[in-house]
């Protein structure tokens, strides 16, 4: 009996330090992770006013091979001076049938060269110096080769009409290296009159399939109130040396 008691005390003497070591484990706070999706770009382009809805779908491929798709619908607009307004909304599985929450509201002022980004949940707007591209399609070579062995090939898809706008189509196929199983494929339908891509389709081996379409395009002058930040929000002016990170579309991982 005494031998069993001594043996039990022997085990406890080794077990207790292990438990204490686990209880003392500490680390700094973890910020978690999130992903953002870069959507349709709206340049300044004076003299080309419009208001429209951007419809986004993003089919994700998980490591186990399963797929899921998230959606959203958001408003974009530009006036004749070149002021630009963009909504940013959460991407969710039901975003194709229901309105998803707004994550931010963005206002570009071409006269003051400022970007104002407002976050409704915080009732705060951040203002910073900003210069936006004035729009225009870039002329790109048919093939761009890289020293690493990868290349980008480009081809014309011709012209057609979308939303009563004449558009020009093109496709880019990017190969990172020889033997890559799947290339990155991008398709663009560009409307010169507005200076934007009204349709963008992307397929990336890791990112999945991303589709953007600009619909319900109204080329009349938008309501001026659309380009005014919400009243009552706190205004924070950022110095010229600071570049605030602009938001893209937010995946459901941050929709909490």
Automatic annotation (TrEMBL):
<feature type="signal peptide">
    <location>
        <begin position="1"/>
        <end position="20"/>
    </location>
</feature>
<keyword id="KW-0732">Signal</keyword>
<protein>
    <recommendedName>
        <fullName>DUF3108 domain-containing protein</fullName>
    </recommendedName>
</protein>
